């Protein structure tokens, strides 16, 4: 190094060190301090910004005809074979801001978005991705620019409605403004009810449950949610009726399943819990790349659950739960990981 360069370093304090990049744990800790929510809870809530591939499959139950393709079109969703990319949400500026900040206050906007899109679509009879983009444009302003949260939206629905109307016009969606305003005032409270029931307390446990239900491999999230004790069918039915009313579409009739009575649960609490735990273990194994350590922990957990249930009085339901744990245990021990996904279809 030349004398001139050395002199410059001496005068100006030497070379500047690059700022150390924060670890994910440090980022979560910062978010904890900023939002007043435990870091481990923020982590699971923030995962919903990413793990939401089956959201269109859930939202289709709010459609009068349960039309998945309609929901896919208006949200700009593309099935890529192992993931559904919901472009109107995932490519939006508000989503980028919220996910980068790990903001737990905006997670429910991900769930709310497609329900607003359904209202817009059924009002206008338009079925293009512009619908979903208009909803995100409204959220870009409401959350992205104004910093308003989901809870704010519930308290000041008229303000959110005005942004939705403005962005519908901006995106050249054919609307009758006053009529749409009235319909949004009717429909938004119904949508909020569904979203709040999906994620009732912003807890870590409910966030994990919803993540599992919205995985790509889950063909019908409603089934898994119901097994875990989250029954949103009455709210979905109300929303479907509302959409049918404003659009003139007929609702698809629900036929009772053979051998069941209306309102009767198809699974016990033990069996529902077992399936949820096994799916959670499977997802954990996948994320860990089926490492030896992850397999050992999974085997330990499954063995403990079998032992725990075996100590209780045996019932047909608990026996099935034990069988489910035992199946998963054997598949992990033998390395037959592809068969673990058979649990999804139960």
User: If helices are DSSP runs of H or I spanning 4 or more residues, what is the number of helices?
Assistant: 18
Radius of gyration over C-alpha positions, nearest whole angstrom: 24 Å
Taken in chain order, the helices and strands follow as HHHHHEEHHHHHHHHHHHHH
Helix content: 55-70%
Beta-strand percentage?
under 5%
How would you describe the shape? globular
How is the main sheet built? 2 strands, antiparallel
Number of domains: 2
Number of strands: 2
Mean pLDDT: 86
How far apart are the first and last residues' alpha carbons, in Å? Answer: 70 Å
Uncertain segments: 253-267
Walkthrough of the structure:
By secondary structure, the chain is an all-alpha fold. The protein has 2 domains: 24-247, no CATH class; 269-345, no CATH class. The chain is built from 18 helices and 2 strands. The chain has helices at residues 3-12, 24-35, 39-47, 55-59, 68-74, 87-90, 93-100, 107-124, 130-145, 150-155, 157-170, 177-198, 204-213, 221-227, 233-247, 269-287, 292-310, 316-334; strands at residues 77-79, 84-86. It has a two-stranded antiparallel ribbon. A hairpin with a 4-residue loop joins strand 1 (77-79) and strand 2 (84-86). The radius of gyration is 24 Å and the shape is globular.
């Amino acid at each position: 190094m030349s004398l001139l360069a050395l002199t410059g370093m001496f005068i100006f304090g030497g070379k500047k060190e690059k700022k150390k990049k924060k670890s994910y744990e440090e980022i979560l800790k910062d978010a904890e301090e900023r939002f007043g929510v435990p870091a481990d809870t923020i982590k699971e809530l923030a995962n919903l910004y990413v793990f939401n591939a089956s959201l269109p499959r859930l939202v289709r139950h709010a459609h009068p005809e349960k039309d998945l393709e309609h929901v896919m079109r208006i949200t700009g969703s593309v099935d890529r074979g192992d993931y559904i990319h919901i472009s109107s949400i995932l490519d939006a500026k508000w989503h980028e801001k919220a996910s980068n900040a790990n903001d737990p206050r905006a997670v429910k906007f991900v769930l709310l978005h497609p329900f607003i899109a359904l209202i817009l679509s059924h009002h206008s009879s338009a079925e293009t991705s512009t619908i979903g983009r208009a909803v995100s444009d409204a959220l870009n302003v409401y959350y992205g620019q104004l910093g308003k949260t989901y809870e704010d939206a519930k308290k000041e629905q008229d303000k959110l409605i005005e942004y939705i109307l403005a962005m519908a016009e901006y995106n050249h969606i054919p609307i009758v403004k006053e009529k749409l305003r009235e319909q949004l005032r009717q429909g938004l409270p119904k949508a909020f009810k569904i979203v709040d029931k999906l994620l009732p307390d912003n807890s870590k446990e409910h966030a994990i449950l919803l993540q599992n239900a919205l995985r790509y491999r889950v063909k019908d999230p409603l089934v898994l949610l119901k097994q875990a004790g989250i029954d949103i069918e009455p709210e979905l039915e109300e929303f479907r009726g509302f959409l049918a009313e404003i659009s003139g579409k007929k609702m698809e009739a629900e036929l009772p399943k053979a051998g069941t009575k209306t309102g009767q649960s198809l699974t016990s609490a033990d069996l529902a819990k077992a399936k949820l735990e096994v799916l959670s273990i499977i997802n954990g194994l996948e994320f860990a790349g089926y490492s030896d350590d992850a397999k050992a922990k999974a085997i330990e957990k499954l063995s403990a659950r079998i032992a725990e249930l075996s100590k209780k009085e045996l019932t047909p339901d608990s026996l099935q739960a034990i069988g489910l744990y035992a199946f998963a245990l054997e598949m992990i021990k033998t390395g037959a990981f592809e068969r673990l996904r058979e649990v999804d279809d139960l």
